[in-house]
Design a protein that fits this description.
The chain is mainly β. The protein is globular and about 35 Å long. The strands form four sheets. The chain has a four-stranded antiparallel beta sheet with strand order 1-12-3-10, with no helix packed on it. The chain is built from no helices and twelve strands.
Length: 107
């Protein structure tokens, strides 16, 4: 159907990441080790556009927090605000599924 995917492993030291929204890719975050905390939903505080169809901000406002352990998978549909929240260190497999009209972003 024209969709593309990209997969990569990231290790995080527990510091928070930027809040982000992207409209052309769904994300799957599978925790491989450690415990991961994510903020989901809400809105970006002072968003900035970093590329077409993608915005980021230092923080999310009004988001809910979820915690995941090894083997847990978090599905983040395109258009959903998400952010790494400060917590323990962890390693995650991220799989991005791009919409049929999108080109995978270079990492």
């Amino acid at each position: 159907d024209g969709r593309q995917t990209a997969a990569y492993v990231e290790s995080h030291d527990g510091r928070p990441g930027e809040a982000e929204i992207h409209l052309r890719a769904d994300d799957y975050h599978q925790v491989l080790s450690g415990r991961a905390r994510f903020a989901l939903g809400g809105r970006l505080d002072a968003p900035r556009r970093i590329r077409p169809y993608e915005w980021r901000a230092a923080r999310a406002v009004g988001a809910d927090t979820v915690e995941l352990g090894p083997g847990d998978v978090l599905f983040v549909p395109r258009g959903t605000l998400h952010q790494r929240v400060a917590g323990p260190a962890y390693t995650v497999l991220i799989t991005k599924v791009y919409a049929d009209t999108a080109t995978p972003a270079r990492r």
